[in-house]
Amino acid sequence: MHKGFASLSFRHDQEGDVWKILASRNVGVQGWDFEVSGVADVMAQAKVKIKLANPADPTEKLQVETVDFPLITRVVVKP
Question: According to the lineage, what is the superkingdom (predicted)?
Fold first, then answer.
């Protein structure tokens, strides 16, 4: 998605944390596994130009109108 059309908003959970970090020991590789999770809202709204024709007069030039074009209405990511 074009960066001019969207923005991200991170929100906190019920405990007030924006990011949740889980660390667990992985003895098989003698290291740690980290899992970072959070909630991000994607807000997107764009404008598009449409051309309107006059069917009664085909010689008339096309009119251009700018209208709202919603890009994303809902994004759900589940593991």
Answer: Bacteria
SS3 53: coil
Contact 20, 39 (CB under 8 A): no
Most confidently predicted of 3-7, 41-45, 56-60: 56-60
What CA–CA distance (Å, rounded) separates 38 from 20? 6
Residue whose C-alpha is closest to residue 48's, from 5, 1, 13: 5
Query: How many C-beta neighbours within 10 Å does residue 78 have?
Result: 3
